[in-house]
Amino acid sequence: MDTLFNSVCGSSPGGCDTVGVWLGALLTILVFTYLIRDGMLFRLAQSLLVGTAIGYGSAVILRTVLWDGLLTPLLNDSATYWPLVVPFIAGLFLLTKLAPRWAGVLFGNISLGYLFGVGAALAIGGALNGALVPQLGATMLSVSPVIGLDNMLNNILLIVGTIGALLAFRFTSSLNSRPLRLYATLATSWGQVGRAFIMVAFGAIFANTLTARVSTLVGQLYFLFHDWLGVVK
What is the pLDDT of residues 165-187, one digit of tens each? Predict the structure, then answer.
């Protein structure tokens, strides 16, 4: 690949770097045309980005997953890696979903269902192990005055906000007994407080995202004025 780039860019030192800078500057300007209107130039840059991402992802999948992880072990040592035949056949059945007349084939539906099932299990397990359980563990804090007033107030806010955020997603039907109605009133009120904490969290996430976007914009402007035009030193 380096030989191909050197043959295209020329034998002069830094030729490929110069071409890369000009291509990056051109694509950046095409993206900035969106500030004027959503025209053909912006869609061209968008299509190039999507096409490059799809091509790179496809190449990685073909090389690392299909060839290195599936076909190479089966071809070199099929006696040891014979269980890989199962995902290989399931993948072939999944290709039947591409043809309209074979879209309803049972085996293709089984492969697709298995794929969705594994994806859902990984998503739910990741949400539980990566978000809910650590958050519940982080809520088990001390509220003793011994730890200091600042730490005590901070822990109380964390506990109230976490429990209130969970109660904000509480949905129940009509309750008949008085203790249950009292509990429902308390939970609803606490849930309203939890919604306020959720709004604060969303605001912090939005501010963080906005800051990241502004940082990216500053970086691209610096690239244009420093690397491309050489105005900024």
Answer: 989 988 776 667 778 888 888 88
